[in-house]
Amino acid sequence: MVGMLYVNSERLWGRINDLAQVGAIDGTLGCSRLALTDEDAEGRRLVITWMQDLGMDIAIDGIGNVVGTWYGPDTDRDLPAVMTGSHIDTVKTGGRFDGNLGVLAGLEVIETIAEQGLSPVHPISVGFFTGEEGSRYAPDMLGSLVYVGGLGLESALDISGIDGTKVGEELDRIDFRGQSPCPGPIPKAFIELHIEQGPILEAENISIGAVDSVQGISWTQITIEGQSNHAGTTPMHMRHDAGWVAGEITSYVRHLVSEIGGNQVGTVGKIDLVPNLVNVVASKATLTVDLRNTDDEILKHAEQELANFCDTLSSQEKVQIHREVLARFEPVAFDKALVGEVIRVSESLDISVKQMTSGAGHDAQMFARVCPAAMIFVPSENGLSHNPAEFTSQREIEDGSNVLLQIMAKLSGLRHD
Amino acid sequence: MVGMLYVNSERLWGRINDLAQVGAIDGTLGCSRLALTDEDAEGRRLVITWMQDLGMDIAIDGIGNVVGTWYGPDTDRDLPAVMTGSHIDTVKTGGRFDGNLGVLAGLEVIETIAEQGLSPVHPISVGFFTGEEGSRYAPDMLGSLVYVGGLGLESALDISGIDGTKVGEELDRIDFRGQSPCPGPIPKAFIELHIEQGPILEAENISIGAVDSVQGISWTQITIEGQSNHAGTTPMHMRHDAGWVAGEITSYVRHLVSEIGGNQVGTVGKIDLVPNLVNVVASKATLTVDLRNTDDEILKHAEQELANFCDTLSSQEKVQIHREVLARFEPVAFDKALVGEVIRVSESLDISVKQMTSGAGHDAQMFARVCPAAMIFVPSENGLSHNPAEFTSQREIEDGSNVLLQIMAKLSGLRHD
User: pLDDT category, A416, cuts 50, 70, 90?
Assistant: First the structure.
């Protein structure tokens, strides 16, 4: 515990608001800075200016990840850095906190340490990673994936976006294709501060989430081919009703999730019927099933149960059911010691804390492949995110940033009298 | 029984095919003659030519219904006519049999009688009624509704269509706004030959349906307002999932129908989710429920049970559920004696027959308000209708038309030695 060292939340709040002016969505709190657009470039340049003001060394790698590193007077430049960070790209109609908070809180940690004339043993790095949202270029978490060597640079540069552009060409266009190598230097540890993007902390009136894992994700698209028929003239036993089958699967997913319990979640968010008319039995239905669990074995069990249910329905209603995997990510476990540290530090600061899982993906999960990693969550008002109305109060951000500060201080071996 | 009198099915088949050339959908058996379009007008003129060739008197009323009346040498012109007929308008991508069969079989009945030099006591009329399909102007069965006085002529002329046109203006444009009065003369009886538009006769290998009733129809649109949330970060117990509720209702409708049994049918043919994305809990869902029964009390019971289920779901998932009646028609019972006649005549012709209900609406149900009415169904291949692939064989049409001929002959008091 580094006593009496606290972030300046006013300064941090100011930077969050300044960055939110770039790509601001008029009349809202929100931002639109899709990865590698002009707005993203302008945001990048602003954050780099702030890094330079703090005397940080700037490294830009081949996929456009920007890592600023700060050395105190007594820092050993040969030691691996303690890294924090996140992303500054947004979804098309995003908020000002998602990602940006983690990057700017990192800068605030450094400024707090620097203005006290203190010095860490390890360098401290703050990174912002290219294309975390995946809204313009898939996959999401692209920059951090390339940073840790999970995807080759050439393959990443060749990715085409929703607008037909290529990652490499857009990096060149905005002048953010750097010379630093990919994969990048492995940090001593990686810790990311992020908004929860869910309702749990707010609902339980808790200030800090000590994130111990990221849920595994299974997305399945189910296509049902039945037979179009007149809703009035076709007896029930002669129907092959794709719409009814879609309804049964939607109902079953909730039942399955409830049976499995624990942190299992399941969602049917998309249903499309053909011809989608009041008086016609649907000939075709397409729906998606989103299943998530922190335990991959349970997630596989859920997938198998869903498949079995589809098979049963298929023979019962005499329809064809086709399942297609749209996405599949294994769960990620964060470093136990680091998660314990988040809890310990929060408690010592008298800030309420809860160990929890992340339902969404984050850059920190990529770093979990190569070094100890963990995350700190702060509450999201009404659980909203990916929405201009996304909001976390200055006080909540202050708490989260102070927890981040203490952990960075400890990991970097900050000397403090 | 008028012995040895049979229709000429080759001639009837020829007229069906000739009329199908008007508004033909290239490369299919189908037709597109929406009510009061140029194609409808051309079809109307062709059928009127055939009526005139048979020496029929043509009456066109204010809503464009065309009724041709035939008198034999010994017919008493003061007696009410025995009427048959149907419609020649089609849905946008319709078949060649729906409606057209009933009109052209009526002409064939007259031609068969006339060429034998026979004479009925009562006049025989064949009508085709404006806008039965309801595809361009709602409600469906518009012309026959106005004919029997169920809707005032001025109101009917003022109806706006899906393309913004008005019935009265389009009638003027195609020159089919006639002088005959609405409501029209009440016939002695009305009997309509129609394709089944369902799979029952084919499945049971039966040639004739003696239609004793038309199902009551209840269409409800259900709108569910829940809350949009992240599919990964929102615990199940904190969801207000409009998509799940839509699935439950879809599943429940089948369950309800099965519990009620009998001829109850129920269909969810339309489901729309918002925002309809794989990883977002739906904030809103709209679905339709089509319920039909020949017994209005049971239909009301089904509607009430559905409403109760929605109320239960609404409190369980904490979503708003709004129900709106899109359409509601009471069941129609046809004349028992006339239905019995269809059965008796079929059996005496050695044609298999089954008493059954109609799941779809027909012009005959409007005439049931003012005179004895019934219908004769012939099989639909694969139960298909409102589809260019709609098909009924020449042999099946011949059987149906011979049943129609015998009944018309008997009702009109045909003298035959």
Answer: low
Q: Which residues contact A121 (CB under 8 A, 6 or more apart)?
A: A74, A75, A76, A79, A412, A413, A414, A415
State the pTM of this model: 0.85
Cis peptide leading into residue A139 (ω within 30°):
yes
CA atoms of B403 and B352, how far apart (whole Å): 11
Tokens of A168: 């490499």
DSSP string, B359-410: SS--HHHHHTTTS-EEEEEE--GGG--SSTT----HHHHHHHHHHHHHHHHH
Helices vs strands, H then E, count in chain A: 12, 15
ipTM, two decimals: 0.85
CA distance B139 to chain A (A): 15
Q: Which residues of A touch B267 (CB under 8 A)?
A: 231, 241, 243, 279-281
* Residue of A217, A233, A356 to mutate when probing chain B, most B C-beta within 10 A: A233
Domains of chain A listed by start with CATH number: 9-214+331-411 (3.40.630.10), 216-329 (3.30.70.360)
Q: Is the pLDDT of residue A417 over 50?
A: no
- Mind listing the pLDDT tens digit for each residue in B182-237? 999 999 999 999 999 999 999 999 999 999 999 999 999 999 999 988 899 999 99
Average pLDDT, chain B: 96
d(CA B67, CA B44): 11
Any B CB within 8 A of A302 CB: no
